[in-house]
Design brief:
heterodimer, A: 661 residues, alpha+beta, 64% helix, globular, B: 149 residues, five-stranded mixed barrel, 29% strand
């Protein structure tokens, strides 16, 4: 009964978001304020209904109700509770419901925090959000309904794909979707601005917090996905340039560009049309990512089911929204008043360079991802574009951007002095080179390019700190004044610095692990030893174990340095009984930012086992850097500037406006 | 510089960057695209030794042999032709005889295919899509177990 209620709530939600999209649009055309006012209420109601529906599905997973087909296919009564819950979005239908839930959640947030927006803009934004929600609610109900029952109910479920039974997967999809879908708000704002044919700096001020929030979540989601692939797949790689990864990375690049161009628009009223286009493109890339991942065009852990009707349906959504938005842009962009011009050497000039490079990089990754698909669709020829393509193009394109990043905040708006900025960054560059040389001395050798890369990483961090240093006037004014100035710096200054430091930390991690990792593949028998990263691993032997829904064979290794025992590592191969599916559970030990990574291969006939041992220096920096970037986004979001006109204040203003009419 | 010249410089700089990016992409494509073949294609396709390709098919039953250390040899088949493959490293968890596989690598001068990456399925009901498509096109029966009779 409760299942049917959840199903029914989803149908009701479809009706509600339909109302949310149609009535306010009619309202803005007829200038009918009561129709426009429907939007926020409908958005909140739609959110409540989808939330109820999602909770019902979660409940079905928690109580292992195998009469629901979706639960039967993806759950098992013996599965640990956390994976029963994460199993809700560990499959196609459930993850689409999560997509919709987050979409209506953002609509509800917009409805709640937009009381200070102009009435027509608010109605239009929520209407566009409603339209997207209609498309996805229809998609779920027509092609991917998670509430379909089975009769008779099976006694036991088929279990979730074991590689998805992991804490990383419990967190990764919700974070990633918060990012993907968060950009829908920017998209809706862009469409609303185009409908109105009017756009100004205030628009950028409203959009930027949403872009920041979405970007922060997307950053965390991608980092989480990368870490999950690293430790769960047992291949030791942290990024494969897999189309599915690219699908999330392209919106991230576009979103990063959007953050920066919105800044120019907010401060200088320039780049207006470009920012609107970027807002449309960013969400379009999110939609494209959803299409690539969910339609079964690509083969990966994410392609749960390959049902052609689903692919066609998402493709239709994609074409309607991207095509519609771009046509609207083509018709209306000319009516938006273009912003002012500016000098190339200035803060805004630096931000344009940032946009140029980031969007080109995004286009490059997109080309490499789509080209094989297009070629196969057109000629039937099957090719693959591998990591070398992406490393070469993306790496070379990003190089100038990384060098330029610290210059941006040091250049003044309107007219900057690049020589002065260069002088101020002299210390940062020196710090980068000295630290890199110190690593060279300690390592005693290694590829020259790697040290160059490390120097860039240190330079990015030092450069970001330079900005804070100079703004606080450390060394120029008395210490207590400098301290007060430092504390009084706007949140956005700290946010920028943190995000840029994060980039530097990630660069250091990437260079460190790419250039200095060591890998040994050896056949080991108990008592044998292998060296990695200055540690000696001694293989003790195998032990059998039993988990709730799997059996495992674990290899035990003693880890010693210089003859002194340091720690031990367990690395196992599991067999999940319900699906008869083996997985590798790598044994990982962390030393500072570096990790020792041990994964098991096949057992040999003579009692030995193939063991793969990696030493991964600085690898944790990759994800720590991403977390620092995310923190930067969060700190920027707390900036006072973005909180101007909080809802309470607006409520006071509104009656005055009404009285004036 | 006058205003006009400045604008021209900025625009040409931007276009120059884009052109450089396009050239870079084309160069990288020419360097790193790997074509997909099944064994039956290779007789016609004349793949030069050292050219990187992806070889798909089924692991022929009874051909998986372990050599020194972690070196494995096996035969990839599409029922029309066979290709012997050697690989050093850890095979994916779902690598099994009689099942779909994609090996990436290049032919040596001796005609032996040296793979540096071996991909199998992501779960037990699934087969690499490229392989499934091609085998179906060649009329190979794919039963639930995906074994070749």
């Amino acid at each position: 009964m409760i299942i049917e209620l959840g199903h029914y709530a989803l149908v009701l939600a479809l009706a509600t978001v339909l109302v949310q999209s149609v009535l306010p649009l009619i309202g803005t055309i007829r200038n009918d304020r009561s129709l426009m006012a429907v939007a926020p209420a409908a958005a909140l109601a739609g959110f409540m209904l989808v939330l109820f529906s999602f909770s019902v599905l979660t409940f079905a997973y928690i109580v292992s109700d195998f009469s629901v087909g979706n639960v039967w296919e993806n759950s098992h009564s013996l599965k640990p509770m956390i994976y029963k819950i994460s199993g809700v979005w560990g499959n196609h239908e459930g993850s689409m419901l999560l997509w919709l839930l987050i979409l209506v959640f953002f609509s509800a947030l917009v409805a709640t925090f937009s009381a200070n927006l102009p009435e027509r803009l608010r109605a239009n934004v929520l209407a566009v959000q409603g339209l997207i929600s209609v498309a996805f609610a229809l998609f779920i109900l027509l092609t991917s309904n998670p509430f379909l029952r089975l009769s008779p109910a099976p006694a036991e479920g088929k279990d979730l794909n074991p590689v998805l039974q992991d804490i990383g997967l419990a967190i990764h999809p919700p974070l990633l979707y918060l990012g993907y879908v968060g950009f829908s708000v920017c998209f809706s704002f862009a469409i609303a601005a185009l409908i109105e044919g009017r756009i100004d700096a205030a628009w950028a001020r409203w959009v930027r917090p949403w872009a920041l929030a979405a970007w922060s979540f997307l950053t965390a989601g991608i980092a989480m996905g990368s870490y999950w692939a690293y430790y769960e797949l047992g291949w030791g790689g942290w990024w494969f340039w897999d189309p599915v990864e690219n699908a999330s990375f392209i919106p991230w690049l576009a979103g990063t560009a959007l953050l920066h161009s919105a800044l120019v628009m907010e401060k200088r009223e320039a780049l207006k049309i470009w920012t609107v286009l970027l807002a449309i493109l960013t969400f379009s890339m999110s939609l494209l990512g959803t299409f690539l991942v969910r339609s079964g065009v690509l083969t990966s852990v994410h392609a749960f089911a390959t049902d052609p009707t689903r692919g066609v349906f998402i493709l239709a959504i994609l074409v309607i929204f991207i095509g519609g938005a771009l046509s609207l842009f083509a018709f209306r962009a000319a009516t938006l008043k273009a912003g002012g011009l500016f000098a190339p050497i200035s803060r805004e000039g630096a931000l344009v360079l940032n946009n140029l490079i980031l969007t080109t990089a995004a286009a490059t990754v997109l080309t490499g991802t789509l080209y094989p698909l297009l070629l196969e669709a057109l000629t039937g020829e099957k090719i693959s574009v591998g990591p070398p393509f992406f490393n070469l193009t993306f790496g070379l394109l990003m190089l100038p951007l990384l060098l330029a990043v610290p210059f941006g905040p040091l250049l003044a708006w309107k007219r900057g002095d690049i020589l002065a900025a260069g002088q101020r960054l002299f210390a940062a560059a020196a710090i980068g080179l000295v630290l890199s040389a110190a690593v060279l001395y300690a390592k005693n050798g290694g590829p020259v390019l790697a040290y160059f890369g490390l120097a860039i990483g240190f330079y990015l961090i030092a450069g970001a700190l330079t900005e804070l240093w100079l703004r606080a006037g450390i060394g120029k004014v008395a210490a207590n004044v400098a301290f007060r100035r430092f504390v009084g710096l706007p949140g956005s200054a700290f946010g920028t610095a943190l995000a840029h430091i994060g980039v530097g930390v990630t660069v250091i991690g990437i260079i460190g692990v790419t250039a200095f990792q060591t890998e040994h593949v050896v056949e080991m028998k108990p008592g044998m030893q292998v060296e990695a990263g200055g540690f000696t691993l001694t293989f003790d032997g195998m032990r059998r174990g039993q988990g709730p829904n799997y059996t495992e064979e674990s290899g035990h290794f003693m880890v010693a340095r210089g003859g002194v025992a340091v720690t031990e590592v367990w690395s196992s191969k599991r067999l999940y009984t319900a699906r008869r599916m083996p997985t590798t559970e790598a044994g990982i030990r962390t030393f500072g930012f570096s990790q020792l990574y041990v994964s098991l291969g096949d057992a040999m006939a003579d009692g030995g086992i193939v063991v793969r041992v990696w030493w991964k220096p600085m690898i944790l920096c990759i994800w720590i850097g991403a977390l620092i970037m995310m923190a930067g986004g969060a700190v920027s979001l707390c900036d006072r500037r973005l909180r101007v006109g909080a809802p309470q204040k607006a409520r006071k203003v509104k009656p005055v406006l009404e009285a004036a009419e | 510089m006058t205003r006009k010249q400045k604008r021209l410089a900025v625009i040409s700089g931007g276009i120059g960057f884009l052109v450089a990016a396009v050239l870079l992409v084309m160069f990288a494509f020419s360097q790193s695209i790997a074509y997909f073949y099944v064994p039956g294609d290779l007789a016609k396709a004349d793949v030069a030794p050292g050219t990187r390709i992806r070889l798909g098919g089924l692991v022929e039953s009874g051909t998986v042999k372990r050599g020194e250390g972690s070196t494995v040899t096996f035969t990839v088949t599409d029922t029309l032709a066979n290709v012997p493959v050697t690989y050093t490293g850890i095979l994916p968890d779902l690598f099994r005889e009689g099942q779909g596989v994609v090996a990436e690598g290049a032919f040596g001068t001796d005609g032996l295919f040296v793979a540096d990456t071996v991909l199998a399925k992501h779960d037990e009901t699934y087969m690499p899509k490229d392989v499934a498509d091609r085998l179906k096109a060649q009329g190979v029966e794919l039963s639930g177990k995906e074994t070749i009779k």
